[in-house]
Amino acid sequence: MENIKDYYSSKSDEILYLELKESLVDIDFPLPILKKDFTEEIKSGTFNEEIEFKYFFRGIIFNLAVDFNFKYAERYFDFLFKNITNLKEAVLNMAIYELQDDVEISNIFLKFNYDNFQDVTSNYYYTLTLLELYESKNNNIFLEEAEKVLNKNISIDEKYPLTYFLLGNIELNRDNLIKANYYYLESKKNLKNLNINNIEEIEKEIDNKLDFLQIEVILLESKYLLENGKFYEVIEKLENNDIYDYRKYYYLANAYFALMENNKAFKYYSLADDFKNKEVEFYIDYSYFLSQVGYIELTIEIIEKGLKEYEDNEILLFNRAVIFLNLGENRKAKEDLENIVQYYDISEDIFNNAMILLEQIQDE
User: Fold this and answer.
1) Which top-rank group of organisms is this from (predicted)?
2) I want to staple 133 with a disulfide (CB 3.0 to 4.6 A). Which of 142, 153, 185, 305 is the partner?
3) Domains of the chain by range and CATH?
């Protein structure tokens, strides 16, 4: 399936057309009914001499949503507007009810409203169904359509909070934390304008996500500053911050090491090391720092600690091999280097350097 249009077009196969011999309204064209509805009602025996209008209503909405250019489309629209009071609300209520049973059918009902009305609430539910389909079918066409709908919603009503709430969820799933934080703040700012039953539940969820993101954004900004050599700004942002996360101490340690304040760097590396579940880069940086300040035994200890979590990490193994060589422990160095060159996914630089060191050991 290449695009969302193809997906909806394929749904035309789910419709039957019935000619009405007798009707309370003057109809000289066939009416659609969902195959699912027809089959279920036949099995249950509820179809007798007369089919309830609600089934044709469902069929018409479904038909127009998946095939706007259907040959009876104009007649269907005329029929709807003549016979249904507040069509938009009728479709929305039907779609919300259908959500409990069949998200795909609900999605198509909501698409009808999206195509024909400018309603942010209906579009919000349409987006919810698109995101559910994205999760269940693992197909990006639904995510792309969801974002398109949400952007249209902003153009309809830039203060509708649930639009920003869903955009925040999308960006959070992508790890775009700064964007997600912005959208959640926009949602919270405008939430007071929303009149729905579960507003407190939504507000609590937004607050929880903002609490999480506030920390993540500070750490992300600190990492960016660190990578760009703004070491004093990292220290200013983090040192008096009460964030309890190993990355705070890790980034402070890197900043102080870069500024050659080794005592403070050692203090913060040690604090970071007390945490569990650290990234491999921490062990690489910490062991490098220790080797530079002459704590060789501790360097090996930290490398081996890292290797327990990240078994066979090529950088840690290579660094340990270099230390072993400097200590004259060639057998241990050779063992690490021989392990490294057997990796199928090793970087070219590490492989070449490992081969050079192996040749030196053999020459000796």
Assistant:
1) Bacteria
2) 142
3) 4-117 (no CATH), 230-363 (1.25.40.10)
